[in-house]
Specification:
Structural class: alpha/beta
Strand content: 15-25%
CATH topology of the largest domain: Rossmann fold
Shape: globular
CATH class of the largest domain: Alpha Beta
Oligomer: single chain
Number of strands: 11
Distance between the termini: 37 Å
Helix content: 25-40%
C-alpha cells in the first residue's frame, strides 16, 4: 500500500532527555538559592555589632552584587540548558548564513514584512515561512532540492522531495520553477475511470525500480498492495464488496451503520485508491492520503478520477476539526513504530472525525499480543462505541503460508460536551 514506515527519532528518549535538562536546571537554581543565603548570613554576622552606617551600606552593596552575579549565572545556565534541549530534540533553527545554502532557500526562509504594516485582524506584522524543524538535520539535501534555475524547469527530483519528507522535513518549502508535466493520454471519463486499466505513459517512472504496471503487479509493494494496480484480473476488483474472511467488512454493511449520514471520508494509506473508488460508486467522496514509496500511487489514484493527498503520517492532517463522516485506516496506523506516535495519530484522527462519525480499522496487523493490547487500550480511551469488532487469523498474502492475527473494527465517535 502507499503507507510507509517513518522512523524519525525516538520519542521516548526525547522526553527523557528533556527531563534530564529540567532536573539539572532545578539543581542549579537550588544551589544558587543556598549560596545567596550563605552570602547574606556571612555579610550580616562577620562584622561587629557596632559597625558604622558606611560599613552596613558597603555590605548591602556587596550582597546586591553577589545576588546580581548569581541571577546572571542562573539566566546564563537557563539559556545553555534551553540550547542543549533544542539540540537534543532537534528543534534548532536553520542557519541560512552557511556558505552551502542555496540562494532560493535563503530567500524563502527570510521574514517578509507586510507592505501595509500590522494586519488589524491577525495582529501579524510579517510573513514567516513554514518549514519542518527536522529540515535542519537534512540541510544539505534540502539545499540540493532548492537549487534550480529561477523560472525554468524544475529538476526531475520528486524522489528527493519524498526523501526529505520521510526524514521529517515536512512541510517542504515552495519553489519558483516549473514542474515536469506528463502527457495524460488515454484517461477515461468518470466513473468509467474507476476500474479501467491505464497506459504506462500516464505516470512518471523516474526514481522507481519498476517502469510499468505489469512490473508492479508482479511484486509485493506492501502488506496491503499485492497486485493492487491490476484493476481487471487481480483481487483488487473484489475488495470491499466480497469478503475473503471474517475480518473483511463490506462497504454497504459499514455504510448502513452510519444511518445514511456518510458523505465525506478520509482513507489513510489507501494504496491504489480502491476503497475511495468503491465509496465513489455509492456517492461518498473520499480523500486518499499516500506517498509514492516504490510505486506512483498518487498519479494512479488521480487517473482513476479520485483525490490523492501526498502526505506522510507524521504530518498533522490539514483539515478542520469534526469534518469527516468516516475515517478508514489499515496497517498504516501502526507504521510509526512507537506507541507514542500511534497516540498522536489516533488523537488527530479523533480531531477530524465528527461526533457520530465512523472510524473503520480495516485488517490491522497485530504483530504480537503487546501491539494488540496497546491499540485496544488506546481505542478504549476515546470511549468509542464498538459497532463491529473482529480478531481473526488469515494466511499471509505474500505466500509464506504463515497465519497472522488481524484486528478489524468499526467504531462510532461519541458526542462530547
Amino acid at each position: 500500500m502507499g503507507s510507509v514506515s517513518l522512523k524519525i527519532g525516538d520519542g521516548t528518549a526525547r522526553f527523557k532527555r528533556a527531563s534530564l535538562c529540567s532536573s539539572a536546571l532545578n539543581v542549579i537554581m537550588l544551589f544558587s538559592v543556598l549560596t545567596t543565603n550563605l552570602f547574606a548570613l556571612y555579610a550580616f554576622t562577620s562584622s561587629p555589632q557596632n559597625q558604622t552606617v558606611h560599613h552596613a551600606h558597603k555590605n548591602i552593596s556587596l550582597i546586591s552584587e553577589q545576588v546580581s552575579l548569581i541571577l546572571r549565572e542562573i539566566d546564563s545556565s537557563q539559556r545553555k540548558l534551553a540550547q542543549m534541549e533544542k539540540e537534543l530534540l532537534g528543534y534548532e533553527n536553520i542557519d541560512i548564513s552557511r556558505p552551502n545554502i542555496a540562494n532560493e532557500l535563503k530567500l524563502f526562509l527570510q521574514h517578509h514584512s507586510l507592505p501595509l504594516g500590522k494586519d488589524s485582524r491577525t495582529g501579524i506584522t510579517e510573513m514567516v515561512a513554514s518549514v519542518g524543524h527536522s529540515c535542519e538535520k537534512s540541510i544539505d539535501v534540502l539545499s540540493q532540492y532548492m537549487s534550480y534555475k529561477l523560472g525554468g524547469a524544475c529538476p526531475d527530483d520528486w524522489s528527493l522531495a519524498q526523501k526529505l519528507i520521510l526524514r521529517g522535513c515536512e512541510p517542504l518549502p515552495r519553489r519558483r520553477c516549473l514542474a515536469k508535466s506528463v502527457s495524460k493520454v488515454g484517461l477515461f471519463p468518470f466513473p468509467l475511470s474507476l476500474w479501467k486499466p491505464f497506459s504506462d505513459k500516464i505516470v512518471s517512472w523516474s526514481g522507481l525500480g519498476c517502469k510499468s504496471f505489469d512490473c508492479l503487479n508482479s511484486k509485493k509493494i506492501g502488506k496491503d498492495c499485492v497486485g493492487c494496480f491490476d484493476l481487471v484480473n487481480g483481487t483488487e476488483r473484489q475488495r470491499f464488496i466480497k469478503a475473503r474472511g471474517k475480518n473483511d467488512f463490506l462497504v454497504d454493511d459499514v455504510l448502513a451503520l452510519g444511518s445514511g449520514g456518510i458523505r465525506i471520508g478520509l482513507d489513510i494509506g489507501g494504496g491504489s485508491g480502491s476503497f475511495a473508488a468503491r465509496m465513489a460508486e455509492r456517492g461518498v467522496t473520499v480523500i486518499t492520503s499516500t506517498l509514492n514509496v516504490d510505486a506512483p500511487f498518487n498519479e494512479f489514484i488521480a487517473a482513476r478520477g479520485l483525490f490523492p493527498l501526498f502526505l506522510s503520517l507524521d504530518q498533522r492532517f490539514p483539515f478542520y476539526d469534526n469534518v469527516f463522516d468516516l475515517v478508514h485506516a489499515m496497517n498504516g496506523l501502526g507504521d510509526g513504530g512507537r506507541a507514542e506516535k500511534m497516540e498522536f495519530l489516533m488523537f488527530d484522527i479523533d480531531r477530524i472525525l465528527r461526533a457520530g462519525g465512523l472510524f473503520w480499522l480495516d485488517n490491522f496487523y497485530c504483530a504480537d499480543e503487546e501491539r494488540k493490547r496497546i491499540l485496544t487500550r488506546l481505542i478504549e480511551r476515546f470511549g468509542y462505541k464498538k459497532l463491529k469488532w473482529v480478531v481473526g487469523e488469515k494466511v499471509d498474502a505474500a505466500g509464506t503460508g504463515k497465519s497472522q492475527v488481524y484486528l478489524s473494527a468499526v467504531l462510532q465517535k461519541p458526542i462530547r460536551v
